[in-house]
């Protein structure tokens, strides 16, 4: 099989390849296209025609496994083969169809991801290793392979206590602190871009998808110069980002506040029938109360993060972290005092376990809850993916599916999922609704300008 020639920019080399076990998550023992199509339940003829088989060369990479597919391309597990015989990886190799070779937005996204990866050294930020294009026109991006699940999937399939929710947000803020300190603003923080990566028995939160990130002090952005388009995800966008893409780090912190609200309340603070209705709600409506089950001190922290005016919010990720850590310490001290009073606390309780147990699920070091003991309300969510939800990030790898139940292929998130186009009739309803929404937005903009005087 001939080797594909590529022109690429190497950001950094992947780590040395750990010896792969034949039945591991990154090895696929499939010998024909028909078998691959059947195993992964692929129905798109365009995807089938451009599939790369396990073992196929792709520039300096060797394909190990098919991971996911979408209308614009595919994602594979791959290893990088060096001239000295070393094998590096595995990596997630995102390969774009040649029909999109002239789409400069894809190339711009890849460059941004690489730029940020080169500038930031944080375990909470996904690594990018290489990007480029083949002679045949396939744009590609090689990045860190992740194994685990998105925050979105976790928050809607399992119980998370208030303490657990805060711990997750602290890790998100740790990643954002590194991003902001390096001089960037993410601009698309949401549960789908927060990933629980599992490695060596440990779990760590990773931030994904820096495709629409910007340099913090940059006042103009040619990538966002298309008149009438708003870049971001309506459910998590800050009030100011809905008006102007030139935002600073406080916009990201607002998005984190939305995530924390959603984790605690089990619902979004703002929803609506269209993207523009949701954006307007962020700009003009107060967040609804989260409910009496949420601790009052924690509620104040969330509401400060969701202030409409950036200067009234947390000014840095560190400030946000400080208040959350103080709240956690308060809760743990309060729990220890209560446990000691009732004779339930054991001295060998691990530090991370010193939190209120979930109903019916005893924490390590705690006695089984009695039938009469009261447990705090715990939120478990069940709503489907949102109407205005961009497609999920797929530069990740999940455990290999059983052959009897093929894994569903996911679409590839690239240049368009985080863009709201006002020309899209589905985005905001009828012509009359468009006119009314436009008038309201102009009024809100005028009010914001007046308040800033």
Automatic annotation (TrEMBL):
Transmembrane helix among keywords: yes
Domain Protein kinase stretches: 61-328
UniProt feature, compositional bias: Low complexity: 362-377
Keyword 4Fe-4S recorded: no
Composition-biased stretches (Basic and acidic residues): 341-351, 401-410
Region (Disordered): 341-426
GO molecular function: ATP binding; protein serine/threonine kinase activity
Keywords: ATP-binding, Kinase, Membrane, Nucleotide-binding, Serine/threonine-protein kinase, Transferase, Transmembrane, Transmembrane helix
TM helices/strands, residue ranges: 432-451
InterPro entries hit by this protein: Kinase-like_dom_sf, Prot_kinase_dom, Ser/Thr_kinase_AS
PROSITE patterns: PROTEIN_KINASE_DOM, PROTEIN_KINASE_ST
UniProt protein name: Serine/threonine protein kinase
Species per Swiss-Prot/TrEMBL record: Microvenator marinus
């Amino acid at each position: 099989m001939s080797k594909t020639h590529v022109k690429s920019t190497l950001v950094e080399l992947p780590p040395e390849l750990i010896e792969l076990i034949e039945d591991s998550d990154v090895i696929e023992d499939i010998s024909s296209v028909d078998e691959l199509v059947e195993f992964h339940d692929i129905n798109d003829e365009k995807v089938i025609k451009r599939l790369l088989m396990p073992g196929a060369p792709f520039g300096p990479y060797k394909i190990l496994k098919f991971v996911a597919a979408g209308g614009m391309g595919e994602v594979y597990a791959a290893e990088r083969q060096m001239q000295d015989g070393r094998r590096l990886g595995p990596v997630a190799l995102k390969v774009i169809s040649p029909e999109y070779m002239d789409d400069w937005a894809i190339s711009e996204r890849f460059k941004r991801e690489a730029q940020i990866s080169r500038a930031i050294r944080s375990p909470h930020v996904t690594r990018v290793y290489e990007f480029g294009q083949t002679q045949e026109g396939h744009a590609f991006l090689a990045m860190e392979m992740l194994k685990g699940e998105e925050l979105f999937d976790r928050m809607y399939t399992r119980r998370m206590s208030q303490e657990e929710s805060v711990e997750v947000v602290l890790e998100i803020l740790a990643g954002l602190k590194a991003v902001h300190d390096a001089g960037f603003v993410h601009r698309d923080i949401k549960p789908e871009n927060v990933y629980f990566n599992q490695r060596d028995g440990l779990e760590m939160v990773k931030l994904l998808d820096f495709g629409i990130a910007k340099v913090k002090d940059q006042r103009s952005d040619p990538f966002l110069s298309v008149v009438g388009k708003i870049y971001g995800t309506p459910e998590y966008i800050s009030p100011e980002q809905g008006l102007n893409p030139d935002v600073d780090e406080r916009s990201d912190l607002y998005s984190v506040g939305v995530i924390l609200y959603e984790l605690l309340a089990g619902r979004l603070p703002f929803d609506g029938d269209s993207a523009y209705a949701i954006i307007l709600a962020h700009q003009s409506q107060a967040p609804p109360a989260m409910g009496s089950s949420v601790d009052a001190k924690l509620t104040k922290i969330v509401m400060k993060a969701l202030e409409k005016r950036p200067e009234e919010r947390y000014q840095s990720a560190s400030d946000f972290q400080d208040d959350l850590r103080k709240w956690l310490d308060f809760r743990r001290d309060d729990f220890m005092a209560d446990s000691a009073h009732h004779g339930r606390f054991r001295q060998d309780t691990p530090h991370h376990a010193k939190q209120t147990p979930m109903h019916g699920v005893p924490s390590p070091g705690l006695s089984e809850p009695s039938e009469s003991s009261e447990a705090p309300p715990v939120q478990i969510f069940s709503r489907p993916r949102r109407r205005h939800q961009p497609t999920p990030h797929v530069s990740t790898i999940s455990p290999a599916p059983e052959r009897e139940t093929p894994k569903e292929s996911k679409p590839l998130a690239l240049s368009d999922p985080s863009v709201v186009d006002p020309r899209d009739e589905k985005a905001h309803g009828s012509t009359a609704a468009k006119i009314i929404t436009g008038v309201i937005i102009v009024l809100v903009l005028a009010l914001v300008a007046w308040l800033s005087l």
